[in-house]
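S.,

Sequence below, as promised.
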Amino acid sequence: MSAAGRTGETPSRAVLAAGCLLTGLALLLRLAGWAPWAGFDGAIFDQLVRMRLAARAESQVVVVDIDENTLSAAGQWPWPRYRVAALVKAIASAKPRAIGLDILFPEPDRTSLSTLRESFRREFGLELGFSGVPPGMEDNDGYLGAVLAASGTIGSIYFPPDLRDTGPRCPLAPLAISGARPAIVPPEGKSVLCNTFPVHSGLAGHGFINAVTDPDGRLRRQPMLYAYEGGWYPSLSLALLMRITGADAVEVGTDAFGPVLKLGRLAVPVDRQGVALLRFRVAGHAQRRVSALDILREDYSPQDLAGRIVLVGSSAVGLGDLHRTAVAPDLSGAEAHAVLIDGALGGVNYREPPWQEVFVSGTILASGLATALLFARLPALQATYGVVALVSALVGLGVGMFTGAGVALDFASPVLTVVVEAGVLSFLLYRRQERIAAVSRRAREAAEAASRAKSEFLARMSHEIRTPLHGMLSAVELLLHGGLDAGQREYAEIIRGSGRTLLAMLDDILDLSKIEAGKLELGSTEFELREVVDAAVGLFRAQALSRNLALRCDVEPGVPYRVKGDPGALRQVLANLIGNAVKFTARGEVALEVSLDQETPEATTLRFTVSDTGIGIPADCRDRIFSPFEQADGSTTRKYGGTGLGLAISRKLATLMGGECGVDSTDGEGSRFWFTAVFGKTHGIRGNGQAPSGSTGAAVPAGQGGHLAGARGLAPKPGPATSGISPTPRRPYRILVADDSPVNRKLLLAILERLGYAADAVGDGRVCLRVLGERRYDLVLMDCLMPEMDGYEATRLIRAGKSGAPDPAIPVIALTASAVAGDQEKCILAGMDGYLAKPVDIELLGQMLESRLPARI
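The prediction came back faster than expected:
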């Protein structure tokens, strides 16, 4: 299984496929007219409409409203026709520009005397006679028709969407159409509902009052044309516009944004179905409204109607002609016609282009695929920026076209597609990142567990190997002190050399493991650079002398005398490089040069170069030798020995010191190993490489095992001339040894006896505490890992005064066969005064005892 499969990743192709699927789904929902989608489009349109509303606008239309107050005072609907006639007659007396009646009277007036006479004749066979009735008032419908004819009123018709004609046809005059008639395909009426014949015949014209609401129930547009039995018929608003312009025909024109109905110099833009968008100009009820009750009572100013277009309608709830819009929740049908008429007369209209669906479908497809590509090819954050830019472009285009040209481009659908698709893909990528993070977390935890197991294993192995090494090397030191003949001494020297070689290999492996595990933290202290350099060179003077090699050290002028850094790490790298140079050089010289490489106000970069006249390194091996356990070839290991770890450790330490390490060499002509290191500046002396007055220039001994580059390399290892332990006069001190190894106890007692100290030994920490309470001791050599109670716990109890020892401050020196990172810090935290790693260097042990034991006269 691939890595992507293991981590549950969503590859780029899967993201692209998911995006394409979402884009296709969005396109299908759009084409299917999904109601929530259409509702979202309408909501965006309403918001844009509200953005362009003005505080007030002059209207050329007055709505005469048969409102709730009128019905309460003059009687509920339907009114007698003579009352409607009285209302129209009163309006006409104010000399309006035109009158439109947004009310339909499809049935005869039952309060009419002629209707009553006809009912009695049909039901009872009786002839009714009426006296005192003015001429023409016996037939209310006829009377209303006469009033409508005298006032030139435009009346209403209605095309029921689900009914077919069942009664007599009403006489309708189709609209005269010219121009680009094929540009419009109006809705087809199945039947028509007209006023009664007397009323209809009195009208100066007629127009339908059908309203079209969007799927969310809001009124945003009005149809201007209807087709019926081969003819086209105008809406009430279009019929009124024809009346006031004197047009007897409508010309259909087209422009870039769709069809236009032309009435002389007046133009009404429509869409492919002949539907015009309503352009609301103010919030609420913009048109001036006059209550029909005020007109009937003559409680109004005729100037309010003079020269204006008057639409008679009703806002009464019972008449069911109220609509929800972007500006008002209860706009009457008459007001909707008034909004459209005002827009046409003012030349301000909203338009919906005929290519709207093509534009929306193409934009959904393009923007959806672009979003999928963004998330498939770019990181999530950059893809999000791309989506924001894409949405901004779509919104800018839509808002700009709406505010600049009044064109209602449906940009909401593409924007919604992009936003939803981006959200889904972001969620998929987020889930992917979560899965990857979980896998990474588990891998990290596993790696940390493996690292801990490795550290514990190394600590345990270090302890288990150093313990017998301590016994072997300590026993050899004691043997070398004894009366051995030349052959026996030679064998003992071989054992000691082999043991030290094994110890060096163990230390190298531990060093490398600590560096690779990232557990090595370099210190930062001020130190004298020349002392560290001299100490590193001094380690190999005896070996170089025995091989007749010249060993020199040059420190250039300008190199600071005191620097700030980790002297142990520097000493170890120098020791590794000089040791290799001496080992691989048979004749000639080995030289160490220290020079100033770079300097800043805060730091100094030094270059250390170790050159030799040895065997050299082939060109194809120069990089490989810096890898762990690698040498130039297998014969090198057999001839010169070594583990192949020294150079790997040196390069890693140089990197930790802020520098680098490399080699320049010619096979058979010698090598130049170099490394750089960055040191902090101090207030010390910058000189010519000489120590200041009063400085001895000698290396300062350090405790064994304290740092990664601990005691190894601090002082020359004892050679044949310095081996052995000279007997020391008895000293007035008694030392307690706590170690769980019988061999180590026996050897430590022998070493302490040779050093002139009286000593006792116990096998664990619990016995150590008991013995300290029974007898006075001056110092404790404490093994750290013991059964029953380890050295750390025993030391803490001693310091806490719970051991029974008379002196809780008695010096305690740690003895441990574990030399991994953190051991020394752990000892200090437990309250121990010193730290020695096994195998114990006898000279360092003697120095440690002399420095920790209290002075006695």
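Residues 1-10, 634-641, 687-724 have pLDDT under 50 and may be disordered.

Coffee later?
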